[in-house]
Structure formats: C-alpha cells, structure tokens
Amino acid sequence: MNHLSLIIKREYISKVRNKAFIIMTIVSPVIMIGLICVVAYLSQKNNDKVRVISVLDSSGLVKDVFKDTNKLRYEHITGLSLEEAKALVKATSGYGLLHVKQNSSIEALSKNITFYSADPPPASLVNKLERLLKKRLTEINYKTNGLDMQKIQAYKIDVSIYQENFKGKASFKSDNFVKLMFGGAAGYLLFMFIIIYGNMIMRSVIEEKTSRIIEVIISSVKPVELMLGKIIGTSLAGITQFAIWICIGGVLLSVASVVLGLDLAQLQAPQQAILESTAQTQMLDAESQQIVQGILSLPLLNLTIAFVLFFTCGYFLYSSFYAAIGAAVDNETDTQQFIFPVIIPLILAVYIGFFTVIEEPHGTISTVFSFIPLTSPVVMLMRIPFGVPIWQQITSLIILVVAFMFSVWFAAKIYRIGILMYGKKPSYKELVKWLKY
Amino acid sequence: MPHLLEVANASKTFGSFTALNNVSITVPKGSIYGLLGPNGAGKTTLIRIINQITYPDTGTVMLDGEQLKPAHIKNIGYLPEERGLYKSMKVGEQALYLAQLKGLSKLEAKKRLNYWFERLDIGNWWDKKIQELSKGMAQKIQFIVTVLHDPKLLIFDEPFSGFDPINANIIKDEILRLRANGATIIFSTHRMESVEELCDDIALIHKSNKILDGKLLDIKRAFKTNTYQVGIKALHSADLQSELEQKFNTAVTNFNSLTANVKLNIKLSAEDNPNDLLTYLTTKGDVTHFVELIPSVSDIFIQNVTHTNA
C-alpha cells in the first residue's frame, strides 16, 4: 500500500500544480460571481424602470385604489374620450391605459375592463391590477347587497393546520422545501463532481498512455494500484478545488453584495414566491423560523453519514468507469462513444430525483431507483431528508459497495489490457474480449 | 554457472492469437543475454511476463531460484522500447518518484540520483521539465531511472535507440560496467552488431516460438561452415584460380588487398584440416589472406528466420 500513497501524492501534486487547474480554481468562482452580479444588476435595472399607467375611470368607482409604488405610477385621466386617451398615452409614451367603463351593474362593469398597451403587459402587472380591482369591486358589491364589510372582515376565520406525525413530532409546510433543498444540493453536487473529476481522471489516464510512461510504471506497481491511486489523488485535488471555490465564492459574494449594494436575495424571488403561496397568511418571520426548525428537524446525522458514504461510493463507482474508458482509448476524441452510456444513468438519476422524489419520496419509482447502484447515490441522497428507513439505506449501500467493487474489478481488467494497447479504438466486442484475458 | 532467471514452457495467448508458444529460456547469472527476433515475434510479451505486467497462461518463471512474485519487482529494472516520462514533471521529482516506486527510500534515491546525474554529466537538469529536454537527454534520465535501484536483473529493450553514437557508447560502457558489478542483463534489440559486441548468450524467438538459444560462441561454432577466405599473390593467377576451383569447393569473394590477385572462399569438409590447405597454398604463391569465416549473428538470424518461414 506504500505504492498507493506515493501514487496518490504524485497525482494530487501534479494536478494541483497544473497551471490550467490553478487558473480554473481561481477564475471560475470569479466568473460565476461576476455572472451572478451582472444578472442581479440587470434585473434590478430592469425593475428600476417606472411604468406609468394611465387610468380612464368612467365609472368613478375604482379611481382611488391605485396607489403609486416605486415601480408603478398611475395617472388619472378625466374628461377625455377613450380614443383621445389612447392617443394621449401613446404621445406621452406612457406604458398603458386602463379603461373602466361606466356600467349599470358591478357584474357588467367587472367584465368590461380593458388594458391597452403597445406590447402585451407582463402577467404580474395584470395580476396586480386585477387584484386591486377585484378587492374594490367586491367591497362595493357587498355593500350594494346590504352586507357589512367591516363585519365580514371581523368574522373572517384564518385556518392554519398544525401538522404532527404519529410520534408527536411537529412539521411545517415549508419542510418539504427545505428537504428538497438539502437532497437536491447533495444529489446535484455528486452529479457535478462525477462529471468534472471523472473527466479529469480519464484525461490523466490518457496522458500516461500517450506519454508512454505507463509501461515503466506498471513494471513497478500493479495496474489496480495505479488506477485507485489516480482516482483517489484526483478526487482529493477535486475536493481541494471545491473547497477553494466555496471560500472564494463566499468571500466574493459577500464583498460584491456590499460593494455593489445589490440585493442578491432578489435572485431567489421564485423560491420566495413558493413560500408566499404556501404560507400566504403567515408572517415572514414565522416562515423563516419554520425553515430553521425544518432544518433542525432533518435527520442531520443520518444525512451527513449517508452523504459521505453514498457520495464516496457513487463517485468511485463512476470514476472507475472513467478510468477504464481512458485506458481503452488513445485520445480524448475517441472517448465520446463510451462516455455516453456512462452518463445516461447519471442524468436519469438526477431527473428522477428532481421530478419523482419531490412528488413521492417513498413511491415505487423513487424506491426502486434508490436501490439500483448507478442511480442510487443521487436518488437516495435526495430521498434521505424525507426520512428513509435505516434498513433501506444500508441495503442500498451494500448493493452500491458490491457494485463498486465489481466496477473496480471490471475497470481494472480493461485498464490492465487497455493501457498497453495502442493505435486503434476498441469496439465493445473487443472490450468484452479483454475481460477474458 | 548458476542461472538467475529461468522461464520454463511459457505460453500466452490473446484470444485466438498465440503470442508465446511454450518458450523456455535460462539466463546465466552475470551474463548479457540477447533476446532476438523479428518484429512481432513475442519478445515484448516474454519481457512483460518477466516484469509481471502480464501473466503467462501456462509455464513458470523462476528468479534466483524463487518463483516470480510481486516482491521481485524491486530486483528488476526495465527499460521498455516505448519510452516515456511525465512531460510536465520536473526531472528530479520524476526520478525520485519512480525510484520510490521501486522501493528506494527518498533519501537513498536522492543520494543515488546525485551520483548518477554527476556520472552521466547531467547534474543541472534536476529542475527542468521533461518537455524541455531533447529526446536523447530524456533517454539518459530513463536509463538512470532503470538502473538506479541496483537490480539483479536488468532488461533493456532497444537501449541505444534515440542516442547519438557518442552517448550510445557511454550507455554501452555503463551496461558493461553494470555487468562487471554483478548485474545480469537481458538485452533485446535488432542491432546485430551490438549483440555481437555485448552478448554472451542469445535466444532467437520467431513466430512465438524459440527456435535457437545458447552461448553465442557455441551457436557460432554450430553454424560455421568450415569456410576460409584466402588471398594469394601468384605469378599465374588465372591458372591458380582454375586449379583451386577444380580441387576445392570454392566461391567468389571480395576483400581489399594491395597484393592478392587470387581471392576465393574455400569450403573444407568436416574432416579436412585447415593447416593442410594452408601448406598447400604456400606452395602456389604468397599467401596474403587466410581467415576462417565465422557466421555473424546477423547471418544466423536471417538464415534461421527465412529458413523457418520457408
């Protein structure tokens, strides 16, 4: 095993010292953060534009519901016909014209409201206008029909269902979101890691082949040792790179948000929308408290241990395939044919994770795929936050470890033969033959 | 003389292709053993078996009286025909790494490297990257890395390719010195003149089979044809020529001579004594040349290979 540590050390040092690697390590977070800042900045710029909306209220009922905000300004037009008003808005390049017709009944009126603009308005704007009008017209309608608005408000009941499982543990609607975040992050991280560093392992094997040093090395060490050393060394370099990315990224992100004064939280608007819809009536404070509680109620210890185990095994499983591919071919262009079938189960796992696990974390599909070794690392990691029985986790892990050992054996076979084969791209048939040598 | 390496009845097939068919060789301790054969004969497969890179389907390999096992790796130094080093790694680090893989401690490896770098006059390359060196320079590094751990058995596959004549000579002297210090050397090459010069024993492998092996001198003796190249300065050269052609089994030959006007190869039968021939010739004129023709390794090689082909 002394050889193994030597190989790991060499692989690690040669990766970490590589100029391209250093540049990638430093530049990518800068680019990423830069991109985030640009997007945030642009969306802010876009939102800064004040839209002027002219209101032609012939009924006189809704005029005062429109209050200026920092993005919207309302101008009330009086004494003009519709055509004149339209011409005016166009001439003053206002954003649009809201026309509320005079009508005998509220129902008829509510069906005769029109918005004129140069381009179709964004749905959010229309929704906002509709909400304001609906509220006002409902009030008027209540009143005309003899209902006391104040009483209605006073007697309104708010319902918030308290969730508790049979063991007496409370849960919240936002919990699912938290679980999804954790599972998704873990699964996606694994996916990224396999793609990036699997390729790196493959390239490093090809490099040894093309520089023809391979024969010297394997007259000193066993091919399996060389392969494992490569995988582990490259992975350690990968972990180093990831750690640096997270540090640089974190620092840059906080610096950028302070210096540029950007509200980066805005980028999370879609997620907030989910939160709002799930908990419209609750205060945001309570909401974030629930999220914290949600995180705390996760099986954190289980999650951490499972993450380390599934991540490591899943990563090794795939990287041994990458190493075998590298050994089987002479140059990188020949790898495509073999990489594709390796990546398909990985992509499948991510899709199942994001579409099926969310809907039904313990459904048949989710459960089955969290046992199949090629998809189990990703799918199981996504399922665990939702609570997976320990026996399932252990079974899945055992299957994964067996598959991992098999794949290393398989890859080592290919590797042992492949590294000494030059000149031609092998077919699948030949690869099968190599297994028998 | 005891044998350092004994390969017995080694066979290896790749699918339907037989790379080695029942090949046995014995390499005496302290010898230089030439492994000869045309391209694709199976030499590399045999060498890889000795290096435990591949394993024979059948047959055994004994090193120094022991069954070959992974621990023997540090007793073997191998310079493959396909040379290569990590291009972007520094010379010193790379040599250290490879030496450590062969079981040397870092300190010991460094000490020996300094010795060898000085010896081959490449002391200032330590921090250079391989890609900055010329091919010949990289070959020198590779040679050093091969011999650094002082192995009992050295295997050189075409050791002189890529070297200019001066450096090839330096390497040749180093190989001879290594043998003098007790190493046993297996030497695979197509350059017959270096076999002639260096090898004590040879084995000829052709089409996966060993077709010939033994002491180089014994083999030469076995292949010699009792042919003598003679040159005579005679008064009547044409007469003598026809007389000799009638009396002996002769063939036309050519060599540089200032005086000889009759030049012939004369083949004697096994029971004839060359002294009688010489005595006879001295009566016919001044003998300027009298040389026994010994087959060169190249002749033996070609003769055997083409013979087996036919």
Descriptive overview:
The complex is a heterodimer of chains A (about 425) and B (about 300). Chain A is of the alpha/beta class. Chain A has helices spanning about 1-15, 20-50, 80-90, 105-110, 125-145, 150-155, 175-210, 215-220, 225-260, 270-280, 285-295, 300-330, 335-360, 365-370, 375-385, 390-420, 430-435; strands at about 50-55, 70-75, 95-100, 115, 165, 170. In chain A, the strands form two sheets. In chain A, strands 2-1-3-4 form a four-stranded mixed β-sheet, with helices on one face. Chain A starts with a helix and ends with a helix. In chain B, the strands form three sheets. A six-stranded mixed β-sheet of chain B has the order 6-7-8-3-9-10, sandwiched between helices. Chain B is elongated. Chain B has about 300 residues and is an alpha/beta fold. The interface between A and B is medium-sized, with 24 and 27 residues.
Features:
heterodimer, A: 437 residues, alpha/beta, 4-stranded mixed beta sheet, 17 helices, 6 strands, 6% strand, B: 310 residues, 6-stranded mixed beta sheet, 4-stranded antiparallel beta sheet, 10 helices, 35% helix
Report helical residue fraction of chain A.
55-70%
Strand order of the largest sheet of chain B: 6-7-8-3-9-10
Strand portion of chain B, in percent?
Answer: 25-35%
Cα separation of the termini of chain B: 36 Å
Shape of chain B: elongated
Q: How many β-strand runs of chain B?
A: 14
Oligomerization category of the chains in this entry: heterodimer
Put simply, the count of helices of chain B is 10
Topology:
The complex is a heterodimer of chains A (437) and B (310).
Chain A: H1 2-17, H2 19-48, E1 51-57, E2 72-77, H3 82-91, E3 96-100, H4 106-110, E4 113-117, H5 123-144, H6 149-154, E5 163-164, E6 170-171, H7 175-210, H8 214-218, H9 223-259, H10 269-278, H11 284-296, H12 300-328, H13 336-359, H14 364-369, H15 376-383, H16 390-418, H17 428-436
Parallel strand pairs in A: 1-2, 1-3
Antiparallel strand pairs in A: 3-4, 5-6
Chain B: E1 3-14, E2 17-28, E3 32-36, H1 43-50, E4 58-63, E5 66-67, E6 76-79, H2 91-101, H3 106-119, H4 135-147, E7 153-157, H5 165-180, E8 184-188, H6 192-198, E9 201-206, E10 209-215, H7 216-223, E11 227-233, H8 237-247, E12 249-252, E13 262-267, H9 274-282, E14 286-292, H10 297-309
Parallel strand pairs in B: 3-8, 3-9, 6-7, 7-8
Antiparallel strand pairs in B: 1-2, 1-4, 4-5, 9-10, 11-13, 11-14, 12-13
